[in-house]
Amino acid sequence: MGSQAAENRSPSDQSDIVGLYCVGDASSLGAAVAAARDAFPAWSVTTPQQRFAILDRAATEILAREEGLGRLLSREEGKTLPEGRAEVVRAGMVFKYMAGEALRNPGDVLPSVRPGIKVEVTREPVGVVGVITPWNFPIAIPAWKIAPALAYGNTVVFKPAELVPACAWELVDILHRAGLPAGVLNLVMGPGRTVGQAILDHRDVDAVSFTGSVGIGRAAISAVAARGAKIQAEMGGKNPFVVLDDADLDVAVEAVTNGSFYSTGQRCTASSRIIVTEGIHDRLLSALKARLSRLRVGHALHADTEIGPVVDRRQFEQDLRYIEIARAEGGVLEVGGEALVRDTEGFFLQPALFSGTTNDMRINREEVFGPVAAVIRVKDYEEALQVASDTEFGLSAGIATTSIRHAEHFKRHARSGMVMVNVPTAGVDYHVPFGGIRGSSYGPREQGAYAREFYTNVKTAYSM
């Protein structure tokens, strides 16, 4: 919906126009909500088998188009082609899983404490769900919001990030061709300040699932809660990765490199604070510098590229600004941090690693959302755990250690929604819950069977 159009340009090559896409407004959003409201009565009473069949057909097409959709995603967002293909596969598997969940919506039948009365506890769809998604996972995050919403019988109004309209359009088109009735899924592209805000404020939007920045997320929570609707918000992270003296050095280096810098560091689960104990600090820093200096930064579609471009000029400038802030605070830039020139005009940045930082510096308090990480030196495990949890966020936390005692203690005591042992902080499965605590997340968890907590309402019925 929308009468205006905007160019969508590749961050790998600013001369590459991915396409022209409609730009909606509040009026477009209102029409989409009305369509979703009209479609809800019929869609909400479809059988689980009907919903399963549609979601499963969509999943099959997504998986069959791994190469083409992956290439489109990488061209549009800047992930490397292997990362783009992997994200498409993940979206397909999310739809496969949630198709099954349409058939697994449990309830209970219980005896009442009063004689002769039966109690039934069932789950019903919430209604019209507003879905607001970010640019960094342009098909996976929409998939893990839209799939459960539809599986449980809700209708959807979907607003993707302005930078990634192509993936959103393809996903919605696939679902419609899979048999989704008119009005059940409605795509409105446009600015967050108009289309996004209209979703938050619309009285006929019964629930909102949001992923984005902390500031916008907090405003969204206030706006939606003020009118008594449900909201689920995934926001930022300042995720720690602890490396203990007993860690396998190779394992630690690869976990840090992957978690901090792959996907150009543009992941809310990226490990941007590397907390290292004294005995391994110098060896780890030396190994990381060598590993990062070998990373190949370039066009997302080139076969030898390991790190693609930053998503756009605004994010690129923000990354450079934080690099200068870290320098001004006294951080030592060990490697990277330079804008790179390639054959095409793109936003290429050499991954940056700082040492000599403390946890009270801005570089370790604020989310950069780019290929920038800082090393914090600590005395021992106890100090590492304290520093790891000293943040307003709490999404993901990791540790590299060969000590079962420390690994088990960290899993129990790290203040985060997800904990990783000897694996990167970024990278999660589609069939288990995703989310954090404190400033990172608000509301029920996403993904897996836990998704039903947000996308359904519980009803208790008594009868004789």
Secondary structure elements and their pairing?
Blueprint: E1 4-10, E2 13-23, H1 26-44, H2 48-64, H3 66-77, H4 81-101, E3 108-111, E4 118-125, E5 128-132, H5 140-151, E6 155-159, H6 165-177, E7 185-187, H7 192-201, E8 207-211, H8 214-226, E9 230-234, E10 239-243, H9 249-261, E11 271-277, H10 278-293, H11 313-329, E12 332-335, E13 339-340, E14 348-349, E15 352-357, E16 372-378, H12 381-389, E17 396-400, H13 404-413, E18 418-421, E19 441-442, H14 452-455, E20 456-463
Parallel strand pairs: 5-6, 5-8, 6-7, 8-9, 10-11, 10-17, 11-16, 15-16, 17-18
Antiparallel strand pairs: 1-2, 3-4, 4-20, 9-19, 12-15, 13-14
Helix pairs in contact: 1-7, 2-4, 2-6, 3-4, 4-5, 9-10
Please characterize this protein's 3D structure.
- The chain is of the alpha/beta class.
- The chain has helices spanning 26-44, 48-64, 66-77, 81-101, 140-151, 165-177, 192-201, 214-226, 249-261, 278-293, 313-329, 381-389, 404-413, 452-455; strands spanning 4-10, 13-23, 108-111, 118-125, 128-132, 155-159, 185-187, 207-211, 230-234, 239-243, 271-277, 332-335, 339-340, 348-349, 352-357, 372-378, 396-400, 418-421, 441-442, 456-463.
- The chain folds into 2 domains: 4-235 and 430-463, Aldehyde Dehydrogenase, Chain A, domain 1 (3-Layer(aba) Sandwich); 239-421, Aldehyde Dehydrogenase, Chain A, domain 2, CATH 3.40.309.
- Helix content is 40%, strand content 23%.
- The chain is built from 14 helices and 20 strands.
